C-alpha cells in the first residue's frame, strides 16, 4: 500500500495546531492544477513528484529539477510559480529557474502570500531593521541581505557606509532586481546601490554577468569603519562585493589576542586581520597574499589609520603554500597565525582535494607556531562541514607533532544569520587553537 503523504498524516494527528498543518488549496484549485483545466487561476505551477515535498515541508527553500514532475503555465525565467505537492496541497510560492538544477527557489511558504513589490519591500525592510543595532559611527559596514537566510534566495546586499552593493545570483532575484534596489534604498537611506552580479554561478542560472550603478552615483572612494579601523573598499573590482564582511567578529577575536605577538596573516586580501592585529598590539605582522592589487589596498588601508604603526607591518606578494615552505626551511617562527584561504571546495565534489590543501597549510602553520602560539584557521567552503574541518586540522596537528587545544569555535557575524531551515547557510567555520 502506498504510504500516506506527510500532509495526509498531518491531517490525522490529533491535537495538531491548525496553523501548523500544511494548508490545502481549495478543492477546485487542486483540480485545476491536476488537470490543467482553465478555471480557478493559480498562475504557473510546478507539480512535484510523489514524496518530493518533504524538504519543503521542513521549509528548505530549494526545489531540485528531479523533484518536479510537471511544469504548467509556461513560466519564464524568474517568474513566480506555485509549487504543488503530488497530493494537490500547496507547498510554496517560488521563483522559477529553467536552466538551473535548483529549478525553483522559495519566496514564501504562506499560501496567502502575494509575491509582488510590496512583498520585497517588507522583506528587505525587516532584514535591514534586524541589522540596525550593528551599525554606528565605529561600524559603518555590514551585510543587509543574506540570501536564503533572509528569505531572499540568490540576493546578497552589503552596506559600505552610504553605498549598498547588491548581488543577484538567481533568476528570481534577477526578475525583481529593480524592486530590490528600490527597497534597499528605502530601508537603508543609502545614496548609491551598485550591482555586482558577476558571480560565476549566474552562468548556471542562464544569466549574463553584469555590474554597475543601479541607483544614485558611486563616490570615487568608498570608505568604511570597522571596529574603529578605516578601510577603503573597491566595490567595482574587489573580491565578492569588495570586502570580507563575514570575518568582522573574527578580526576582533584576533585583535583581542594579538598583544605582544609576532603575527603571520596568510591570505590577507586588503589587510583586514593585519590591521586588527596591529590595533590589538601585535609587535609585528607579516601578511601574505598572491594578489598585488589586494596588497596595494592593504598598504593604503594601513596608511589611513594614523594610530597604527606601519613600521610593524610587512607585506609579501607570494603563494602561501610556497611561502610557508620557505619560511619553515628558513626556521621562521610566529606567535600567532591567521589562515583565511579562499573557498577551496565550493561544493562537496571538491572536498577531497580541498581537504589536502587545508591540511597542508594547517600542518605548515603548526610547524611555524611557537609553543603557546595561537592559530586562527578558517574554511569558507560549503563542501567542507565544521566537523570535517576540525578533523582535517586535528590531522594536521598530529602530523606536525603538535599538541593543541581548540579555545573557540568561530563563525560569521550576526549580519550573516543562518536560517534554521537552511543549514547550507553555515558556510564559514573557524577554530581558534592554542599550541601547547
Ligand atoms: N582574510 C581576508 C580575506 C581573504 S580572501 C580578509 O579578512 O579580508 C582570500 C585571499 O586569498 C584573496 O585575497 C586571494 O587573493 C588570496 N589567495 C588565493 N590563493 C592564494 C594563494 N595560493 N596564495 C596566496 N594568496 C592567495
Average pLDDT figure = 92
Shape: globular
Helix content: 25-40%
Bound molecules: S-adenosyl-L-homocysteine
Strand order of the largest sheet: 16-15-14-17-18-20-19
How would you describe this protein?
With 436 residues, this protein is α/β, with parallel strands linked by helices. Helix content is 29%, strand content 27%. The longest helix is centred in the last third of the chain and has 18 residues, at 351-368. The structure holds S-adenosyl-L-homocysteine. S-adenosyl-L-homocysteine (SAH) is lined by residues 244, 247, 267-270, 272-273, 288-291, 294, 319-321, 340-342.
Per-chain topology:
Elements: H1 6-12, H2 27-35, E1 45-48, H3 54-57, E2 62-64, E3 68-72, E4 80-84, E5 90-96, E6 102-108, H4 117-131, E7 141-146, E8 155-160, E9 163-168, H5 171-175, H6 177-188, E10 192-197, H7 201-204, E11 210-215, E12 223-226, E13 229-232, H8 248-257, E14 262-266, H9 272-279, E15 284-289, H10 292-303, E16 313-317, H11 320-329, E17 334-339, H12 351-368, E18 369-379, H13 386-399, E19 404-410, E20 429-435
Parallel strand pairs: 1-4, 9-10, 14-15, 14-17, 15-16, 17-18
Antiparallel strand pairs: 1-3, 2-6, 4-5, 5-6, 7-8, 8-9, 10-11, 12-13, 18-20, 19-20
Helix pairs in contact: 4-6, 8-9, 11-12, 12-13
The chain binds S-adenosyl-L-homocysteine.
